[in-house]
Design goal:
four-stranded antiparallel beta sheet; alpha+beta
């Protein structure tokens, strides 16, 4: 199959490429690849720049900053953004809570939250998973009890990514303990500065602080912060998770890292035929993944994910992990220097190799584990 864009889509690709490489603030490119202690304020500035250009949330309704683009044009936007090493818009804002508020929220909620969500003036985090409600999310036990004009929230959330930076958290809470478990859940927006909200860090295997526990102790939340109807939060959660699982094959970013790996390999790439064959195989598989992604977005309809999106998620995360493993192998013993400071003679890419490899173990779990994706593929594509 030859990848060929229509003249209109090719022009769109060129516009995106020019913007990300020449018009976007150059000092903000490569934020996520620099160090583990990047300034969150820079990430906010990066997303604010995208919002000013109308490129932070192209999938939203146009009245709230979206673009009237086809699925293929949105894919091109995402690919060019990744290739240019521009930090993607915060997914919790633009791919998760933003579409929920735009679709199910009140007019007041839309006006209050959506502009600041697009620009990252509000940094959102996700309060879904609990210690005993991860894969079986409907078993969540965090409660919200109505008290006059407020909800009183008690409970615990875990694996709250970047919650230490969050201004607000969108949460699933149990509002009717007597109802069937999926029907007794509501979708609530909570200000993280509210008394009774406590964020506790969880240290990851790579030594970083990316996820957290969030505790709620008699947290008083205005009733107006309920999204949609009471006890219908499960419907909104399914809508949100559907958006989360679209675009989880980071083709552009993985291609960029592989291209950098070839530079880091230097003469070894020409001298070691096994290494050259390994790189060539990864390049071919990435090309096949990109072509598959183009076919998927070209045949998606009504905003619904194509069944083959499970193939993208599965293969995309496998290739992400394979490229990160290649970088560790290229770094060799230097990959053990992940704790070295900036005064180290070990190149930064080598120092980051092992933490990046360890961190990407999560990629085969989030957005629906790869085991679940294989089941979906077997059932919906292969008919087994």
């Amino acid at each position: 199959m030859h990848r060929r864009l229509s003249p209109e889509d090719a022009a769109h690709q060129q516009r995106m490429r020019e913007y990300f490489t020449t018009e976007f603030p150059q000092e903000l490119r490569g934020l996520l690849a620099r160090s583990d202690d990047f300034d969150p304020a820079d990430l906010r500035r990066s997303q604010a720049a995208l919002a000013d250009a109308g490129l932070a949330a192209p999938g939203w309704p146009s009245e709230w900053g979206g673009q009237d683009w086809t699925s293929l044009q949105k894919f091109i936007w995402d690919s060019e953004l990744q290739r240019a090493s521009v930090a993607p818009p915060l997914a919790f804002n633009t791919s998760m809570v933003g579409p929920v508020i735009a679709t199910f929220g009140s007019q007041e909620q839309k006006e209050r939250f959506l502009p600041k969500t697009a620009s990252c003036e509000i940094w959102w985090c996700q309060g879904f998973s609990e210690p005993d409600a991860g894969s079986d999310l409907a078993s969540l036990r965090t409660t919200a009890v109505r008290d006059g004009d407020d909800w009183i929230v008690n409970g615990q959330k875990t694996w709250t990514t970047l919650g230490q930076h969050g201004d607000w958290i969108f949460t699933l809470v149990r509002t009717d303990p007597e109802a069937k478990k999926q029907r007794g859940i509501s979708f609530l927006l909570i200000d993280m500065t509210t008394p009774g909200v406590e964020v506790r860090p969880i240290e990851l295997i790579d030594g970083g602080h990316e996820v957290n526990e969030v505790w709620f102790s008699d947290v008083r939340v205005p009733a107006e912060n309920l999204v949609g109807e009471e006890n219908h939060g499960w419907d909104y959660a399914k809508f949100l998770l559907g958006n989360e699982r679209v675009g989880v094959a980071p083709v552009g970013a993985t291609k960029r890292v592989l291209a950098q790996a070839k530079e880091w390999a230097g003469d070894a790439l020409a001298d070691d035929p096994l290494l050259a064959a390994r790189v060539a195989e990864l390049e071919n598989e990435l090309l096949a993944l990109e072509l598959t992604a183009l076919r998927v977005v070209a045949t998606s309809a009504d905003g619904k994910p194509h069944p083959a999106s499970s193939v993208l998620k599965l293969k995309g995360t496998e290739l992400q992990q394979a490229v990160s493993e290649l970088v560790v192998d290229l770094a060799g013993p230097a990959s053990l220097a992940s704790g070295a400071g900036n005064d180290s003679t070990v190149p930064q890419w080598a120092r980051r190799a092992t933490p990046a490899y360890l961190n990407l173990r999560k990629a085969s779990i989030y957005g629906g584990s790869n085991e679940i994706q294989r089941q979906i593929i077997a059932r919906t594509i292969l008919g087994l």
